[in-house]
Amino acid sequence: MSMPIRFDPRCTLLRAIFVLLAGLCCATALAQGFPGGGGGHGGGRGGHGAPPDSAHRAAPSDANKPPEPLASLLRSAHALRQDLLLDAHQTERWAAMQDALRDALDKQNSLHPKPADAAQVPNPALLFVEDAAASNGAYAAALEKAAQSLHAAFDALDARQRKIAIERMSAALTDGAAP
Fold first, then answer.
1. CA 95, CA 91: separation in Å to the nearest integer?
2. Spans of all domains in the chain
3. Nearest residue to 80 (alpha-carbon basis) of 93, 69, 64, 68
């Protein structure tokens, strides 16, 4: 006999948040593209001229940086910790969730490996790709841990707290993901 499938709206929301975070992170990585701007001859510049010198490029300002959904969630979690009046058991789970979000944010920020100096290693391209794969794997594991800790933290809340937390963290996620 098969087991009946249990539908839990909180679990569905947490999975949706996790999928949105993963999608945003992948989209951010893919949006960076390749040096030169893409395919075709001439690196996407139509073969016109040399690539722009990095000295002539404007440095990206903090205002032009894309918003960080994980950072928004972490800020929201910090504010909510005070506002929800958590008991000791809830505080323990909430702190674990904040630690997992902070770890995922740290892993996200370290996703940009730098190419190795060709004179120092026998195959810098291979090392670069292996380092990128390891960084992305560590980031994926950190996101999975964050999703599990979010689930545990939300399970520890009562109905009133859960409603407030879901509303405020969803708003933070939406605000943090908006262009």
1. 6
2. 68-179
3. 93
What angle do the packed helices 159-177 and 124-156 form, to 10 degrees? 150
What does the block give as tokens for 9? Answer: 């709206």
41-97 pLDDT per residue, tens: 444 444 444 444 444 444 455 555 556 888 999 999 999 988 999 999 999 999 999
pTM of this structure: 0.60
Angle, CA of 14, 75 and 100, to the nearest 5°: 55
E strand or H helix that includes residue 17: helix 9-31
Could you tell me which residues come within 8 angstroms of residue 89 by beta carbon, excluding any fewer than 6 positions away? 156
Residue 179 CA to residue 65 CA, distance in Å, equals 10
Question: Do residues 149 and 96 make contact, with C-beta atoms less than 8 angstroms apart?
Answer: yes
Residue 66 corresponds to which tokens in the numbers above? 């894309």
Question: What is the Cα–Cα distance from 50 to 134, expressed in whole angstroms?
Answer: 33
Whether residue 135 contacts residue 111, with contact meaning beta carbons closer than 8 Å, is answered with yes
Q: How far apart are CA 161 and CA 147, in angstroms?
A: 18
Count of CB atoms situated within 10 Å of the CB of 176 = 20
